[in-house]
Amino acid sequence: MCTVIHNSYIICGVLSLQVKVAEYAGFCAGVKRAIQIARDAASEGGKCYTLGPLVHNDAVVRYFEKKGIIPVDSLESIEPGRLIIRSHGVPPGVIQEAERRGFLIKDATCPLVKKVHTLAALLRGEGYAIVIFGDKKHAEVQGIAGWCENEASIIESLEEVFGLQVGSKVGFISQTTRDENQFYQVAAALLPGKTEVRVFNTICPATRNRQASARDLSRQVDLMLVVGDINSSNTATLTRECKFTGVKTFQIQNASDLKKEWFEGVTKVGITAGASTPDWIIKEVLDRMSEYDENAVKEQQIEETVNNEQSVPREESFAKMEAEMADFVTPNRGDIIKGTIIQVLDDEVMVDVGGKSEGIIPARELSVKDAGSAKDLVKVGDEIEVMVLKWDDDGTILLSKKKVDAQKYMDKLEEDYKEERTIQGVVTGSVKGGLLVDVGVVAFLPASHVDDGYVRNIEDFIGQTLNFKIIEFNRNKRRGSQVVVSRKQVVGEEKARLKEAFWQNIEEGQTRTGKIKRIVDYGAFIDLGGYEGLLHVSEIDHVRIEHPSDVLHEGEEIEVYILGLDREKERVSLSRKKLLKSPWEIVMEKYKPGDIVEGTVVRIAPFGAFVEIEAGVDGLVHISQLANRRVEKPEDVVSVQDKIKIKILSMDPEEKRISLSLKEAQEEAENKEVEEYLEQQDNE
Ligand code: SF4
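Above: inputs. Below: predicted complex with iron/sulfur cluster.
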């Protein structure tokens, strides 16, 4: 009796054949799992149903039938009880119906098939026309079709692609047990005339492993035996793969199908088996080749295989297989995938994006911002997200990080737009009709939205970081900017906020700092933050001024006094003068009676002359104080505009009067001269 040893030759009986079992053959992890679920159900006792045979293998089905696991064709024919959903899976409607009828469901759908269900539903939800490469009558394919509302097109061969009527946006998936080469041939044939074909290689790694090891073995032997049920799709694929290598191949269900004449002139035999073929059937075949004894199969052997977890040649964990499946999903143009930077040159970056290919990002596709070298932007080891731009003939993928970044900015801006948030941006330049603003992407700021009033020169804003609102957002716009911003609204809102705060806090008698916005003939407009008030020319200074611009300058900050408020009319009277010292105050601080000061004759009256000693303050030199002789009229002594030295006789701040004397000032000057002369004589 032979033992099943994978990937190693054994010598079989009277024919002295060298027989090798493929590295991967027999039960896959999905079938093992379903069998374990059936075993558990059998051990609970009583009847349990499976909708269709548990696996595509009569012997296994019969074995479980004896243990109370009964295959049925439909739910209508049976009373509600326990129901195993086999590894092929079912459409969602079947589960809903079973639950509605009161069945207790034990779901043995292979996790990898479930992934295909999820993918099919997702693609359907995103509006893709779904094409399934698979056997139309196979339970797995019907299950997958159910997950896309039975709207999928199912094709079994390359030829069927040409008569296919589907939309231009296609999601292409496969039955898990199909041939990978054919799958890609069909994918390529689907492309012409479509705007988008998303290709998902959903062929299970267990299938791929079985196909690859069957092919390998076929090339080493004179005869291949493929063991599996006539209804097993993956067994049929294995048979086809072996035949393609040119080796003589026979598909058998069990040892009884063997024919001795097949082995004439044959020295090396390879054996492979479908994913639902238990080891004991392979063993039976090996034994038959040794003995040709139909009774070699023992019930004990069946028991051992069904209960033996180690019968699968290599460990095929679902996690590992799921990861492999993910790797084989072909990224399409426009897909966003993750990658790790493995090389950075000045003008391009190489990215490991998993799978079989490497990606290249040209420097111009690295960032939305300008940079001299790629090295300034990224480094080896960085994990990044990139968009697939196209596949080159050599399998290299051309990628863009810039487009992903821009998309992220666009997502954020779309949210800002919907939430009416204020965003910040830098004005980078001007174009016809407005300015360009960097808000992550380049946005357009129309000239009429630069401020809430007329702007004489919008280019003054270039280089400034400002706040904006998005007033137009359209990702699909082909011409012009997808993002249009406005500062007008932000400024308007800010003004309204400041205005409210201004009127809440303003009081008469306060001193406020304001900015001179505009100077006019009759005064100046002062921005007090939330209010722009007029400072009348008469309130600018104590002294008379020819024009406000003699004293004030636009843009300058000054302090003003709040003279009065009219909240109803929203008017505020301002004064600068009020905060300045009056000429009288200056004079009172600066001079005292007895001081000799210089002044200008500003007016002459019959009783004397008025002399200005500080701007806006003049005193009287009475006619009697003009000279130490009798003066007929003041003009005999002084004229208007004369600059003269006078003595302050008295100062009356109450009456704002100052008495001056020219006579005493001159006497003092003469006395001083005499004193200085005498002093000089004494010194000589
Ligand atoms: S062949 Fe793959 S997908 Fe199918 S049951 Fe086995 S493990 Fe699951």
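The first strand starts at residue 9 and ends at 12.
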